[in-house]
UniProtKB/TrEMBL annotation:
One of its GO terms (biological process) is fatty acid metabolic process. Signal peptide: none annotated. Pfam families: 3HCDH, 3HCDH_N. This is 3-hydroxybutyryl-CoA dehydrogenase. Keywords: Oxidoreductase. One of its GO terms (molecular function) is oxidoreductase activity, acting on the CH-OH group of donors, NAD or NADP as acceptor.
C-alpha cells in the first residue's frame, strides 16, 4: 500500500470545516494524526479548530480524556491558509458543500497540488463517488469516506468504492477509519450507499400506514418503540431530522433508482414540508414542541369488562398456545377445538394479511373478530405492547372487550384499524426486504450491512439479523400477503430473502 496509515507521522488534509469536517478533524487528531484544516470561507478553519479544541476541553473537564490527550490532540490541528499546503497530506478528505460541480472542481484543483500517492476522499452522502472521480486525471485514487453526524458519536464510516477506485485506496480508507476509532465498512458506489439506502423502509412505510388511516402517528410510534423495539418511532425520527432534510433524501434515492416502488416517498411528508411543519427545529412537526419537549399525546383508557368467551384461531399454533394462556389467566373461557360459540370474541392472527381476510377465510363473524399481532411476542414480559386490529364491522363492544382482555396483565394495548400486516409487521418487513436487496445487489457484505445499519440508524438489530430473529419465512409470508392484498410491487420480496427463506437458512448467508 503506497500510504502507511499506521505511521505516527501520518498527515491528512480536511477541506471544508463545517459540521462534518470538524468532527472528522476531532477524531483524527485524537487518533494522533496530524490534521491540516482548510476552508474557503475566511476564518472558518480557525473557528473550526477552536471549536474542536473547546469540545476536547469539555471532554477533559468531564474526565473522559486526560489533560495530556487534550494537549496532544490540540497540537495535531493546523489551520492552513491555502489549499497548496495539502501537498504534505497523504489523504485529503473533502467535506465541502454537497454540489457535484463544486466537488469536481476542488478535486481537479487538488490533483495539481497533492503528492502522487495521496488519496482523495469525499464525504458526500448523496452524490456518486464515480462521478466525482470522473473529473480527475487519476480517478483510481478517489474513494468515498462517508461519516455520519455527529462524527465523534456516530462510530461508523462507509468506505465507498467508485467504479474505478483502486483496492489499495479503499483498504487505506478502511484502515484510516479504524485508526480513528470507528467501525469501517466497505460499500459499492450505489445511491444511498448502505445506511441511507437501508433507512428507506422505516419512514416511508410508516407514512403509508398513516396515509391509510390505520392509526394515528403517535400510536404508530408507540407500536414501533414498545412492540418492535426501536429506540424512536418513525414520526419522532422525522421530527428530529427535519422534513427539510429527510424529504429530499427520500426523493433523491427514489429517483436515483428510477422510481423503485420500495422507496416511494409520501405525499403527506411533501405537503407538511411545503407547510413548514419541519419538526423540532420549527417547533411543530408531527408533534408540537415547547422548550424542546414534545407535547404529550392522548392514551386511550382501558375499557371495563371482559368478553364472555374467546375463540382462538389455530392458523399459528404457537401463538394460539400463548394466547390461550393469556385468556385463561384473565379468567375467561377459551374456545379452541370447535367453531366459535354465539357470544365468543374471535381472535385471529394474520401474518401480512388483514383482519377482514383472515376472518372470512376462517368463516368467522366480522362483527366479533379482532386480530392480534403475534410476530413481536405476545406473552407479558416478551412485549411491552400488543397490537389489536378490527375489521370494518367489528362492534365497539367486541373491540373494547378485546382491549380490556389483553390489557388485564398490565401490557399496553394499541387498537388499530384493519391493515394487511398491522403496523410493525409491515414496517419491519419493508426494512428487512430492503436490507436483503442491498445484499442481493452486493453493495456490501451481509455482516457489514447489519453493522452499518445498527450503528448508523440505531435500529435494535441490523435488517438481516432482524429478519432471522422474526423468521425469514415469516417475513417472506408478510411480504407475499401484503403484495397480494395491495397489488403493489413495493412489497415484492427480494430474491435474497426468498431464496434464503425457502432454503431455511440465515439471511446473513453469503454464496460460496
Ligand atoms: N451534515 C450531515 O449530517 C452530513 C452527514 C454526512 C455527510 N455529509 C456531507 O458532508 C459534506 C459537508 O457537510 P456539512 O454538513 O459539514 O456542511 P457545512 O455547510 O456545515 O460545511 C461545509 C463547509 O465547507 C466550506 N466550503 C464550501 N465550499 C468550499 C470549497 N469549494 N472549498 C473549501 N471549503 C468550502 C464551507 O465554507 C463550510 O465551512 C457534504 O458533502 C454533506 O453532504 C453531511
Amino acid at each position: 500500500m503506497p500510504v502507511d496509515i499506521q505511521s505516527p507521522s501520518l498527515c491528512i488534509g480536511i477541506v471544508g470545516t463545517g459540521a462534518m469536517g470538524r468532527g472528522i478533524a476531532q477524531i483524527a487528531a485524537q487518533a494522533g494524526i496530524r490534521v491540516l484544516l482548510f476552508d474557503a470561507l475566511h476564518g472558518a478553519a480557525t473557528s473550526a479548530r477552536e471549536t474542536v479544541i473547546a469540545t476536547l476541553g469539555k471532554l477533559a473537564e468531564k474526565g473522559k480524556i486526560s489533560a495530556e490527550a487534550l494537549a496532544a490532540a490540540s497540537a495535531k490541528l493546523e489551520v492552513v491558509p491555502k489549499l497548496d499546503a495539502m501537498a504534505s497530506a497523504q489523504v485529503v478528505v473533502e467535506a465541502i458543500v454537497e454540489n457535484l460541480d463544486v466537488k469536481k472542481a476542488l478535486f481537479q484543483q487538488l490533483e495539481d497540488i497533492i503528492a502522487a500517492d495521496c488519496i482523495l476522499a469525499t464525504n458526500t452522502s448523496s452524490l456518486s463517488v464515480t462521478s466525482i472521480a470522473a473529473a480527475c486525471k487519476r480517478p483510481e485514487r478517489v474513494g468515498g469516506f462517508h461519516f455520519f453526524n455527529p462524527v465523534p458519536l456516530m462510530k461508523i464510516v462507509e468506505v465507498i468504492d467508485g467504479l474505478v477506485t483502486a483496492p489499495w485506496v479503499s483498504e487505506a480508507l478502511l484502515a484510516l477509519g479504524r485508526r480513528m476509532g470507528h467501525t469501517a465498512v466497505g460499500a459499492r458506489d450505489t445511491p444511498g450507499f448502505i445506511v441511507n439506502h437501508a433507512g428507506r423502509g422505516f419512514v416511508t412505510e410508516a407514512l403509508r400506514v398513516l396515509g391509510e388511516s390505520v392509526a394515528e402517528f403517535h400510536e404508530i410510534d408507540r407500536i414501533m418503540r414498545e412492540a418492535a423495539g426501536f429506540r424512536m418511532g418513525p414520526f419522532e425520527l422525522l421530527d428530529l431530522t427535519g422534513l427539510d432534510v429527510s424529504q429530499p433524501v427520500m426523493e433523491s434515492i427514489y429517483n436515483q433508482y428510477y422510481q423503485e416502488p420500495r422507496y416511494r416517498p409520501s405525499a403527506i411528508a411533501a405537503q407538511r414540508l411545503a407547510g413548514g411543519l419541519l419538526g423540532r427545529k420549527t417547533g411543530r412537526g408531527f408533534y408540537a414542541y415547547a422548550n424542546g419537549t414534545a407535547a404529550a399525546m392522548p392514551v386511550a383508557s382501558v375499557p371495563a369488562g371482559k368478553p364472555a368467551s374467546v375463540w382462538i384461531s389455530q392458523t399459528h399454533p404457537e401463538w394460539a398456545e400463548v394466547l390461550r394462556d393469556i385468556v385463561a389467566a384473565a379468567g375467561v373461557t377459551v374456545e379452541i377445538d370447535h367453531d366459535p360459540g354465539p357470544e365468543a370474541l374471535c381472535i385471529v392472527t394474520p401474518l401480512g394479511g388483514d383482519a377482514t381476510t383472515s376472518c372470512l377465510m376462517q368463516g368467522l363473524d366480522p362483527q366479533r373478530t379482532v386480530a392480534i399481532d403475534g410476530l413481536f411476542g405476545l406473552a407479558a414480559g416478551t412485549t411491552k405492547r400488543r397490537t389489536l386490529m378490527t375489521t370494518p364491522l367489528t362492534t365497539a363492544a367486541m373491540r373494547d372487550a378485546a382491549h380490556a382482555l389483553f390489557a388485564v396483565d398490565g401490557t399496553a394495548v394499541s387498537v388499530i384499524r384493519d391493515s394487511a400486516g398491522f403496523v410493525a409487521q409491515r414496517i419491519v418487513a419493508c426494512i428487512v426486504n430492503i436490507g436483503c436487496d442491498i445484499a442481493q445487489q452486493r453493495v456490501a457484505s451481509p455482516a457489514d450491512i447489519d453493522r452499518a445499519v445498527s450503528l448508523g440508524l440505531g435500529y435494535p438489530r441490523g435488517p438481516l439479523a432482524f429478519g432471522d430473529a422474526l423468521g425469514a419465512r415469516n417475513v417472506l409470508a408478510v411480504l407475499e400477503n401484503m403484495q397480494q392484498f395491495y397489488g403493489d410491487p413495493r412489497y415484492r420480496p427480494s430474491p435474497w430473502l426468498k431464496r434464503r427463506a425457502l432454503l431455511g437458512v440465515s439471511l446473513l448467508t453469503e454464496e460460496t
